[in-house]
Write a structure and sequence with these properties.
Elements (H helix, E strand, L loop, with lengths): L1 H36 L10 H22 L2 H34 L8 E2 L5 H32 L3 H46 L7 H6 L17 E7 L5 E8 L2 E8 L2 E8 L5 H8 L5 E3 L4 E6 L10 E6 L4 E4 L1
Parallel strand pairs: 1-2
Antiparallel strand pairs: 2-3, 3-4, 4-5, 6-7, 7-8, 8-9
Helix pairs in contact: 1-2, 1-4, 1-5, 2-3, 2-4, 3-4, 3-5, 4-5
């Protein structure tokens, strides 16, 4: 009997952790993915799926251990650690893991990907630990009490109310994470996509100057008829204050870079991905090669065909002068 009761508790603890991890992830990154799917982002689930795969198993483990051992100090410790993990993911997924995954999934974007280290990152941690931490610790401390209430409930509604409480608390924590970080990377996509849609709608049409100014149509004028083509959007750059964000627009192989300053579009320019084969080869061998972007030079090792053995000679190619020099 005791074994059966204990098994029920641990099973409910697993369900409790599952709800906490899933709905936190859904609020922090899932709603963002759903919204961005409507705005032509290239990889809408790039934040949500990795976060889900990390958050849910760890939250299930915390829920299981809390219900299994029924120790108040252990519950506090486990859910406090969970809060630290959630806060870490909220802060670092957009600025570290998404750029890394983007470079692996779309390697041609590597030359324009640049995310700077955040200034005053302690402020983000403070807010994250305060909002997310309190929610997690509250859910952890109350888990055993809520599970006991669920087991003692005489109706289905009463049995599920404790889990509804967990769902509500962790969803609120997830939305706090969205407000803290995820939202900063969603607004530029929406702004640029709306701008491009307006540019396509009013392309080569007479429009009132005031209305054109309000819609900022002059920003997309350098793109000319590219605005009429289907496009996909990817954030490729963010400064250390998350104030200046660059959005790469892929018009089926033709590219433009749109600059957004504090959610306001400033200008768009046609660009190309400066990553030719010589640069790729130069980046491939870290010991012998380097790329000097300041001088627009590329230094790579070469293998002279008239030499029997491989030599670590270097060739300098200048994009500026179009010449090749051997050292």
């Amino acid at each position: 009997m005791v074994s059966s009761y204990s098994r029920k508790r641990t099973n409910l603890g697993i369900v409790y952790g599952l709800i906490a991890g899933f709905f936190f992830s859904l609020a922090a990154w899932g709603m963002d993915a759903i919204i961005l799917m409507r705005h032509n982002i290239s990889l809408p689930f790039l934040k949500f799926l990795p976060a889900l795969l990390i958050c849910v198993p760890i939250a299930i483990l915390a829920g299981f251990l809390t219900a299994r051992f029924e120790k108040g100090w252990l519950s506090f410790l486990l859910w406090a650690m969970l809060a630290v993990l959630f806060t870490y993911l909220v802060i670092n997924i957009p600025i570290k893991y998404v750029p890394w995954l983007t470079s692996k999934l779309v390697p041609q974007y590597i030359p324009v990907i640049k995310f700077e280290e955040l200034t005053n990152i302690g402020h983000y941690w403070f807010y994250g630990i305060f909002a997310i931490g309190l929610s997690c610790i509250l859910c952890g401390i109350l888990e055993n009490v809520l599970i006991d209430q669920s087991l003692a409930a005489s109706s289905t509604v009463s049995a599920i109310l404790p889990f509804v409480f967990c769902l509500a608390i962790m969803t609120g924590a997830g939305f706090s994470g969205d407000l803290l970080m995820t939202n900063h990377f969603r607004e530029p996509i929406i702004v640029v996509d709306t701008l491009l849609q307006n540019g396509a709608t009013y392309y080569n049409q007479e429009i009132d100057k005031q209305k054109a100014r309000e819609m900022r149509l002059s920003i997309v004028s350098p793109l000319d008829d590219l605005v009429l083509q289907p496009h996909s959007l990817t954030i490729v750059s963010a400064d250390n204050y998350l104030g200046i964000i660059k959005v790469l627009v892929d018009f089926d192989g033709k590219y433009a870079l749109c600059h957004v300053v504090y959610s306001q579009p400033t200008f768009c320019e046609v660009t190309h991905l400066r990553f030719n084969r010589i640069e790729q080869y130069a980046r491939g061998s870290k010991e012998l090669n380097r790329v000097d972007f300041f001088n627009d030079d590329i230094i790579v090792p070469i293998n002279y065909p008239n030499l029997a053995n491989y030599t670590k000679n270097k060739v300098r190619y200048s994009n500026t002068t179009g010449t090749i020099q051997f050292n």
